[in-house]
Each structure stands twice: as structure tokens, then as C-alpha cells.
Amino acid sequence: MWIVGISFVSIALYSIYDIGVNPLTLYFERDDIGNLLGRMWPPTIEEFGPIWNSVLDTFFMAFVGTTIAVIVAVPLGFLAASNIVKFAPLRWVARGIIVFTRAIPDLVFALIFVRVYSIGVLPGVLAIGLHAVGMLGKLFADSIEQIQRAPREGVVATGASRSQELAAGVLPQIIPSFIAAALYRLDINFRSATLLGLVGAGGIGLQIRAYQGALRYPELLGVTLLIIVLIVVVEVVSTNVRSTILGHNRTSVSFLQKLKGGPSAADFRVDTGPRHVDITTASLTPPWTKERVTMYSFGLVSIVMLYLSFSLTDMSVLDLLTGLPEIPQVLWKLVPRSMDWWQSMFFDDLVETVLMGFAASFLALVVAIPTGFLAARNVAPARWIYATARVFILGVRALPDLVVAVIFVAALGLGPKPGVLALAIGLYGFATKLFADSIEEVSNGPRDGVLATGSTRLQESFSGVLPQVMPSIVSNSLYLLDVSIRSSTVLGIVGGGGIGFALLQGAKLLKWEMLGGLLIIIFLIVYSIELLAGWVRKRII
Is the pLDDT of residue 535 over 60? Predict the structure, then answer.
């Protein structure tokens, strides 16, 4: 464990030195960035109608992609769960598919599908759906493995079949977490969909690419601000719905009890009298709780949104089905028959991509860990500090990574430095939310014990909170490295360094074997990090 930790820090520090980036780079380059922002101000949006139609296409693209991902990830999640499937080779195949779809960035999938369906929304839908299978399949499998055994055993005891056991003993336990994971992925997919147009996958990204190429910076900033506002709205709505479904918004004390000063002793008195229930008249229908109403409303809204996705855009089920037979042919072209595609510069590009991932992860973690304590409701020094930190994190997370990279590349020039800075900013918002959520779930017992010794709030955080969240911080940091390397593979598309430029050229020039060979190497790198992260998690949890 010490070797892993020292190696991570050492490689990260070397990466920062080799790339030439440090936390003060933004300060040292403030003049160039300020000049660019001056050229972008004031933000403008010309022809709001077409822009708004592109935004709607982007949202519907994300929604349909998420729907496809859920449909594919549910059976994969069941096949990958060890408490459902006992045949190990079948589980390994399912896990392999999940890891593969997660390892390849959605932008790379979009490059491939554009060659099948040409420029439009459909390549973006399939790219989002296929890439999202990786995350949702993993979350679904983990949720299934954590279900309680008692309901399943009760259903089996009635003589139910295997399918009835799954439908009545497993499915009701996992539906809330499935819907919550799907909503969270919709939030992520909407961010991703805004950028897929950079490679011709439709949506607002086409406008971003046009403004970037024409150096129309005020319009670029205007569209970016509009995207940020919409991302914040989508995240706020999905977060509230997700919290309601999971029961996080449930209160134990009613509003009238709060007015009276809290619950009284009568509220907790045990009813010891006889209770008779007439089973012939008792209702077996579950009560319409707030969570159940929200779940059914979510299902109804999803059906309506799915209909609007195809009726208000140029997406067509017929076109989708027509192009499906061509996808295996394209994937077969990606399989390298020899090493003739390999060029010596690819090794340097791959190394640069990995170094970018380490540097961006380290820079993000240095700031994200202390910010996570400020953004945790239970340990923040004051309520206003907690609220300010959460709003700030939400704003940072709403920034599209590639748009930030475009701005930094325009201000600082081509190379890995602007890519690392853009990636670190995006990872910071993502990591801070993970850390803050983990801190809010700590037990109060150790904290109370530390406070009882007369310690300060700072000492309590170090002695009562940090040891509890350290396993989560370590595992999430390794997951952050996984995400960072995957993301750094596409920054070269906008001049941010790494292997992204070679991937883009391979897709544009139809060099299928070169594109497939690079994707296989990226998959092996990401899969190796995931195996290492799994080993570390088992050691610390």
C-alpha cells in the first residue's frame, strides 16, 4: 500500500514537472487568459431560435442515449452480479463488456458512429448510450449484489420460479437505486452531449465547433453560458428527484410537531392493545407514498420525453435499425491484423496522455479534499460556508471540459499544459462532490468521542472524521485517475495534447486499424488501473 501511494505521488509530481504546469500557472498566465476573455466579452447569442433547437436536440440526444444505456445495462448488471449468476465465466464476460464500454470515451465512439450514420444526432445517441452502459452496468451490478436475502428467500419459499424470484424478490429492492443511477447518468450525459458535435455528432456542439473555427469568441461564450445554465437546471431537478426516490428528503418529524417544539413522549408510546385485522377486507395495495408517486411520475414523464425525442428531432427508429447491421462491420475493421499501423510517435503520445491524467488528478485532489470538508453539511464550520461551497462546486461541474480546453488552448497555445488545466478543473468539481458526500455519511460516534476530550473543530475533523473517510478518499482518488486518463485521451482533439489528435486523424482518414490499435492500448491502460484500484479497495475497506 505504501508503494502504491508513494508511486502515485511520485509519478504525479514528475508529470507536473515534465508538462510544466503547476497550481500557479493560471496566475502566471493571467494576462493571456485575461486578453482572451476580453475578446469574448460581452457574450452574445445570434439567432436564438436555431441555437435553442440545437439545445433541445442535445437534451433529447442525452435522454435517448440514457434510455438505451439503461435497457442494455440492466441485463448486463444481472449477469455481472455474483449473487444472481453463479457461473463465473459468464460474469467475467459481462464485466468485460462493462469495463470496455466505460474505458472508451464517448467522443471516440461518436467518431466511429459518424462513419456509419454520417453527421447528425443518431451517432451521438449511440455514442452516449454505449459509453453510459459501462457506468450504469457497474452501478446496477453493485446494487444487485447489496440486496437483502430475506425477501428472495421468502419468495422462493412460496414455490416461485426463478423468474418470479427475480421479479418479486430482487427487482422491488433495486428499482429506486436504478432510477437514481439513471438520473445521475442523464445529468452526466447532457454535459457530454454538448460536446459531441465537435466530431459531427449533432446538437449544440456543432455550433461550438463553428464558432471556434471562425474565432467568433463572443458567440462561443454566449452559447457556453447558456449550456452552463441548462446543465445546472438539469442537475438540480435530477438531484431533487433522485433524493426523493431514495428517501433522502424524508423527515421524521412533521411540520406541526416542529411548531409544537418537536415530538412528545406520546408519539413514541407503544400500542399494547389487541389489534385485529380482517384479512378479507384488508388492502394489499401499497400506499401512495411520496416516493411511489415520484417513481410513477418519473416513468410517465420518461415515456412522454421519449416520444418527443423522436417527434421533435431528426432521429428516426428506422434509420437507427437500418444502420445497425453496419456497426459489426465497422467494429471488425478496428481489429488490427498487424502492427503496420504503429508509429514511434504514438508511444510518446500515450505516455503524455498518462502523465496528463496523473498531473490533472493530483492538482484536482490537492484542492478537492479540503473543499470536500467545507461542502459537507455535517462538518462545515458554518451553514453559509456549506451553501457557498455547494453552489461553487455545482458551477464548476457545469463547465464543459472541452469548452474550457478550447479557451485555454486559445490563450496558452497548443500542448498538454492547457489540457491538464482544463481537465483538473473538471475533475475538481467531480471529486469534491464525491468527497463531500462521503464525509456526510460518517458515523457521529468517533466524532463525539473526540469532542468529549475538549478538542477543537479542526482536531475533530482530523481525528474523528478523516480516519473514517480515508478509505473512500483513497478509492475515489484511484477512480478519479481512471476517469482522468480516459478524459485526457480526447483533449488532443482540440489541441490539448495527448493521443487525442492521433485518434481524430485515424477516424478522419479512415485508418481503422490504427484507430482500433490505439483504442485497445487505451483499454488495457484503463483496465490495469481498475484492477489496481480494486486491489487497493479490498485492502483498505
Answer: yes
